[in-house]
Each structure stands twice: as C-alpha cells, then as structure tokens.
Amino acid sequence: MVKKRILSGMRPTGKLHIGHYVGALENWIKLQEDYENYHLIADYHVLTTKLDTREIFQDSIDMLIDWLACGVDPVKSPMFRQSQIKEHTELNLIFSMLITVNRLERNPTLKDQVRDLNIENVIYGYLGYPVLQAADILLYKGQYVPVGEDQVPHVEISREIARRFNAIYGEVFPEPEPLLTKFPRLSGLDGNAKMSKSLNNTILLSDDAATVKAKLKKAVTDPLKIRRGDPGNPDICLVFSYHKKFNPGEVDEIDRNCRSGALGCVDCKMNCANNISKFLDPIIEKRKYYEDRIDEVKEILHDGENKAKIVAKITMEEVHTKMMLG
Ligand code: TRP
Is the full-model pTM beyond 0.85? Predict the structure, then answer.
C-alpha cells in the first residue's frame, strides 16, 4: 500500500515549548508510523519577522534536537531546512502569480500578527508568507498537514493555490488538508490563550524540574480561590488544563477537591509540576544525548536535505513540463 504523504514544519525560533508538543509534535510522532512524513525547518519564514540571521542556524539546530528528543524518527521522517532546497523559492514565485493581494490581505493570521506585534508597514514577503508555505507543502505533494489550529487558514490558501494551478496547467498537486490534534491548544502560564516565546509564558521542553516548579508557582489559577478552603472552579483554571494533559489519571479527584476547597492551589501546582517533569525527563535525557553529538545531528539534517532534494526536483520537473517551460 502506498503511504499518504505528510508535510509539516515550524519556524526555528529556538527551543520549543510544551505547546508545540501538544499542538503539533505529538501528532507528527504518532503519524510517522502510517504516513510518509517530511518535516521542514522554515528558516526563510523567520525572515518575515526577524531579519537578523546570526542565530538562525543555532535556532534551527535547537529545534531539530527538540524534534529528535520528542521522538521524530529521522529514518521515517526526513527533516530539512527550507533554505537548502532551492525549489521552494522557485515554486513560491510561480504560486505568487496564482493568488491575489486582496486574498492575502484577508488572511486572519496576518491580521492577528499585525495587531499583536504592532506592525505598521507590512513587508511584501510577509504578505506572501502563506504563498511560501503553500510551496513548502505542495513541493512534496503533502496531502495532510499536521499543525496547530492557527495554521488552518494557511492550509486553506494552499488548497486554493493547488486548485488554481491544476485548473490552469493540469493536475499536479493534491489539495492538502490540515490534521489537528484532539487536545485543545495549551494556554500560556499567564493565562494568555497562546503559549509563546515572545510572551514569555512558556514551559520549554528542555526545562528541568526546578525550573518547571518555579514557573508553575507563578501560573494563574481561579482568581476567586485565594487560599486552601476556598472553593475553586477548575473549568477556568489554567493549571487544571495542564493536569488534563499531563496528569489525566487524577483529574476527577482534583476536580472534586478543588471545588470542595480541600485542595489548595500550591499543592495542586506542585503536583502538576511533578507530572509535567515526569513527561519531560526522558525528553531532556534524549536532548542531552544529541547535544553531546552535534555532528550526528548535522548528519541527520544533511541526510534529510538530500532526501528532500530528490522529491523537490521531481515535482519541479513535473511543474515545468505542465507549464511548457522546459
Ligand atoms: N507557518 C508555520 C508556523 O508558524 C510554519 C510553516 C512553514 C509550516 N511552512 C510550513 C507548517 C508548511 C506546515 C507546513 O508554525
């Protein structure tokens, strides 16, 4: 049976946090058994918000190590940098002719970021962010794209571009579909709906037990529960949402004891921190293995890039043939 192909990626912004794991990585690892996976380090996409490239290589390596430490298998899932596969830029150019400025201006992710980051003048490349992403996905003929829900509008744009190309030049591309994790997105430690490095509200996959405890101590809970004895409402408690993911066996008991007031927030947080660390410990151990063997990590990257280049070349030959540019 031919396996269906998955393409997914992330921008290398350094070490990853547990939100990346819950939102996407966990799915990648699960899906690598049944699909043919390709995973991209979107280093060109970083340029849309950060032109200083001095840390980009190190950030890419840090992210790759997190992927490996979580269990992405380099044999099953080639991992590669976008910037090393020239065909991304070529397909990006062709795709940029197949979508209107108007459509890109309506992209909700763009609107959100412009607001969150207070961007006054949108650069040309930023407007084209989803076009490059469409090239990333379709260069590998990705049928499924396991991403966080914030990326769904981008996958929709990829579908539109694929449809348009196929209608004009003939069938080359699948219409990719997003694959979302079942678990809702993890909020940040400050209660913000988004866990994000720029908001400084993350728990990193590389945080040791003491760091996790210290961070949890400051996490927001039900503001009306001030001391043990006060009844709390787990439905609006951030820490409870972490328990659901990292301590599922105890959620019923915690729910009960929080509501009755028997459980205090400090104990509840420390229990949560312990469970998060129980999950993180093997990841940290594996991370250390790779940190001590950077040459092996680079080898994995080069190997992934060689595999990606083969697929990219075949797709572009097909594109050129269909477009009669060859
Ligand atoms: N935009 C994605 C993010 O910010 C990263 C990305 C770039 C991506 N190219 C992709 C995701 C292709 C999936 C497929 O997380």
Answer: yes
Domain co-membership, 167 together with 256: no
With CA atoms as reference, report the closest residue to 80 among 316, 311, 319, 318. 311
CA 103 vs CA 92, 94, 106, 127, 163: distances in Å? 16, 16, 5, 10, 15
Closest CA to 104 of 143, 134, 83, 82: 134
Which residue's CA lies nearest to atom 2 of ligand 1?
10
Q: Residues 26-51: pLDDT tens digits?
A: 999 999 999 999 999 999 999 998 99
Residue of minimum CA distance from atom 11 in ligand 1: 9
Q: Which domain holds residue 265?
A: 207-287
Testing ligand 1's pocket by substitution, the residue of 10, 85, 113, 197 carrying the most ligand atoms inside 8 A of its CB is 10
* Ligand 1 interacting residues, C-beta cut-off 6 A: 7-11, 40, 42, 45, 133, 136-137, 145, 147, 151, 154
pLDDT tens across 171-204, in order?
999 999 999 988 878 999 999 998 998 899 999 9
Residue nearest to atom 14 of ligand 1 (CA): 8
| 194 within domain boundaries | no
